[in-house]
Amino acid sequence: MDHEQIHVVDATSQARDVWQQLIESTPDIAYVLNPDGVYLEVNPQLCKILRQSRERLVGAKASAQLDRDHVALAERVLKSIVEKRTVERSTRTFQVAGGDAHTFEVVETPLVRDGRVWAVAGIGRDVTQEITLERKLWDTAESRHSAVDFALRTSLGLVKGYVYTLGQNHAMDDVRRTRYVHIIEEEIDHLAKIIEDMLDVRRMEIGDHGLDEEIVDVRDCVTYALRQCEDEAQRREIRVQLKMAENINPVYTAREALIRVILNLVQNAIQHTLHTGEVQVDVQDHEAYVEFVVKDNGVGIPENELPYIFDKYYRAKSSAASPVQGTGLGLTITRTLIEAMGGRVWATSRVGAGSEFRAVLPRRPVSTGDVGETDFPEMPSALTNIASTI
Asked: Can you tell me the distance from the alpha carbon of 64 to that of 38, in angstroms, rounded to the nearest whole number?
């Protein structure tokens, strides 16, 4: 072996030693899984969090160490990484018996050998304190209004920046120019949606719901609303499944309001579902009312936040995923419209397992004082305060 080869071997050995020290000393968790989710390697920090030795963890199923609500989420992410060979970012909560829960923002990367994924490497940053602090801050009405201001300022800043760049760079190639124009269009649409929602809420607060009632074809409203969601669902690789009978009796209600309710519920489900997830829309025909069920396998909502998700500017802060962009007005509008049409809406959910929203709409006009005249299904007792105004 000549001197040059010796130097290469020494450098490789030193680099490996540095890497080993880094993995063992970092405050972050680090691990390697096989495609079935079994630990191949773990670093000391993960052992410390799970209160188990390396010998006991290596060879064990990673999902066995997770909080039960996060098992399905973790398995779905792992499957996506192995099948699509793409890096995935998610959030996991490790709940050890007799200990505190630890929430980590995790980035997992496929390791490819001979054309197949033989392992998945993950590294996670502890965000437990950040989530706790964020929830405390979000509990004030002032902070919710600030979130709307932030959303507006962010979109306006992006539009201004890209417009300035387009104006200054006259030699920009067509591909880049087209991409910038597309970003500007998306941000303008986002701004328009925020402003439209704010104006609608303000209008509804003074009693103007804009409801022009007529005989409405339910199937037509549902299919029209789902078409509006197609682009976003395809972009996020989310499958939207519809279950609806061929013949559903019409209802006497406001067509545009019904479309808006369905659209808001489906868009909400898409936005809170991981890439390659699934949203199910089920329309059930009853004698006195029609029931709309929108179910996703997304991040879920903590039980203690369910009574507030329809409040103005409120956004649930699930520990199962990073915060979702939005202003918290979509569900407020949904509840206001469905109640104005004499119906009810509520939700059930479990963190890491997804959410289910149900909206029931009577076939005939029902005033808000006619409680009990329409035989609606009962809401879960813990959620009855959501519809207390009906």
From this structure: 10
SS (HEC) of 221-277: HHHHHHHHHHHHHHHCCCEEEEEECCCCCCEEEEHHHHHHHHHHHHHHHHHCCCCCC
Q: How many beta carbons lie within 10 A of that of residue 14, not counting itself?
A: 10
Give the Cα separation of 2 and 283 in Å (integer).
Answer: 75
What mean pLDDT comes out for the span 350-367?
Answer: 81
Strand 29-33 and strand 278-285: the pairing is: unpaired
C-alpha span between 242 and 262 (Å, rounded): 12
* Structure tokens belonging to residue 323: 């915060």
Q: Which of 52, 32, 36 is nearest to 44 (CA)?
A: 52
User: What CATH number was assigned to the domain covering residues 3-126?
Assistant: 3.30.450.20
Q: Which CATH number fits domain 128-208: 3.30.70.120, 3.20.20.80, 1.20.1250.20, 1.10.287.130?
A: 1.10.287.130
Candidates 61, 59, 63; CA nearest to 76 is: 63
Q: Are strands 101-113 and 116-126 parallel, antiparallel or unpaired?
A: antiparallel
| Ranges of each domain in the chain | 3-126, 128-208, 209-387
| Homologous superfamily of the 209-387 domain (CATH) | Histidine kinase-like ATPase, C-terminal domain (3.30.565.10)
Alpha-carbon distance of 220 to 217, in angstroms, equals 5
pLDDT(74) > 70: yes
Residue 386 near residue 307 (C-beta atoms within 8 A):
yes
* Three-state secondary structure of 1-69: CCHHHHHHHHHHHHHHHHHHHHHHHCCCEEEEECCCCEEEEECHHHHHHHCCCHHHHCCCEHHHHCCHH
Q: Residues 92-116: what's their mean pLDDT? A: 82
Least confident of 136-145, 229-238, 282-291, 331-340: 136-145
Cα dihedral 304, 305, 307, 313, rounded to 10, equals: 160
